[in-house]
Amino acid sequence: MRHGLETFIMEHYYVLAGLKKQKCQESIDTGIMNFRKALKTVDEHLATRKFMVGEEFTFADIQIFNEGTSGDFIKMDYSEFKNFQRFREEMLKLPDLKEQFDNCNKELVGIQAALGLV
Q: How does 21-44 read in b/e, with b if 16+ C-beta sit within 10 Å?
């Protein structure tokens, strides 16, 4: 029996991975378009700042990092978001955050393997 969070993650991954594409292609496309639009706004904001709120690391940076890197689930190409890429690299210099990020990526690979996607 799956716990609530695990079920949510699996359902979220199924949609992002495109396993339900025939039924919800329009929803997927809209979600990706909205995600890219939001990331563009973040990218523009970061053009004049090292972090989200000036030059000092804050909780806002963790939130934006977590949301912004959710594109990894769909193997998103971040190349058009140069400022976000710089921000992401800066955030990954923080040892605790990098460790958490690496652990999440390991779990993602595990979920992909369990679903037969890798």
A: eeeeeeebeeeeeebbeebeebbe
52/83 Cα distance (integer angstroms): 11
Amino acid present at 4? G
Helices (H), the chain: 4-17, 21-45, 59-68, 82-91, 95-114
Return the pLDDT at 2.
Answer: 44
What domains, with CATH codes, occur in the chain? 4-114 (1.20.1050.10)
Residue type for position 89 = E
Residues pairing with 51 in the sheet: 54
Q: Whole-model pTM? A: 0.66
Mean pLDDT per 10-residue section of the chain, whose length is 118 residues: 52 59 65 87 92 86 84 82 92 78 71 65
pLDDT of residue 1: 42
Question: What's the DSSP call for residue 54?
Answer: B
